[in-house]
Every structure is written in C-alpha cells, then in structure tokens.
Amino acid sequence: QVQLVESGGGLVQPGGSLRLSCAASGTTFHIYTMGWYRQAPGKQRELVAVITRGGSTNYVDSVKGRFTISRDNAKNTVYLQMNSLKPEDTADYYCNADVLTTVAGRSEYWGQGTQVTVSS
User: Fold this and answer.
1) What is the number of H-type helices and E-type strands within the chain?
2) What pLDDT sits at residue 86?
3) Counting Cβ atoms within 10 Å, is residue 63 exposed (0-12), middle (13-18) or buried (19+)?
4) If DSSP codes are grouped into helix, strand and coil, which group holds residue 30?
5) Span 13-54, pLDDT tens digits
6) Do 98 and 31 meet the contact criterion of CB atoms below 8 Å apart?
7) Is 29 helix (H, G, I), strand (E, B) or coil?
8) Signed CA dihedral, 39, 92, 63, 13: sign only
9) How many CB atoms lie under 10 A from the CB of residue 45?
10) Are the beta carbons of 22 and 28 closer than 8 angstroms?
11) Distance CA 118, CA 76 (A)
12) Distance from CA of residue 102 to its chain's centroid?
C-alpha cells in the first residue's frame, strides 16, 4: 500500500507564509501526477495545484502568483509553498498522488489532511 503523510499546516496571520510537505511511502513504484486540494468548511473540495512527474504545473486562479508547487522525485515528496496568505485560504489541505505499484496497479491516493488557518 501507499501512504501519503502531510505536514506543515498551522495558524498564520494574513500576508504570512506556510510550506506544506507530503511524503509518499510504502510499496511505491512510480508516482505520476501529485497535487494539493483543499476543503473549507461547508464547501466542496477543490484543486489547488498539480505537478506532473516532469515538473509541469497548474494552479487554480485564486492562488496563482502566491502559491508554488514543487516536487522531489528522489524523495517521493511534493511541496506547496504558500505566500501572501489570505483568510479565504483557510481550509484543510489534502495531498493527492497518482501511483503505480506492483501490487495494486495504478491508483489514486490521498493524505489525511493538514489544517491551514489564516487569521489575525
């Protein structure tokens, strides 16, 4: 099986920064696209940013210019650098990965989520 473990969430003031990390472990074989999603209270989960294995990225419009997604393929880890945070960025952030394993074939995996609160 594959486990995704997120870290880096917390409480930050508006205008501040946080860096989220998500490390994949287990019977990983090949990780394709990795991404970050978020879900605010009372709202649907939305895509924040994705990155392919080759480094191509895509962002939701609301975070463009403020958030940067990156990955370290050697460490099976994806990062989300969040700058100029706004109260509307408050949400639970979830890591997602498209993984091929020798046991389960190709499947999508989710982390347990990490909470980000932007408040003064």
Assistant:
1) 0, 11
2) 98
3) buried
4) strand
5) 999 999 999 999 987 789 999 999 999 999 999 999 999 999
6) yes
7) coil
8) positive
9) 15
10) no
11) 28
12) 24
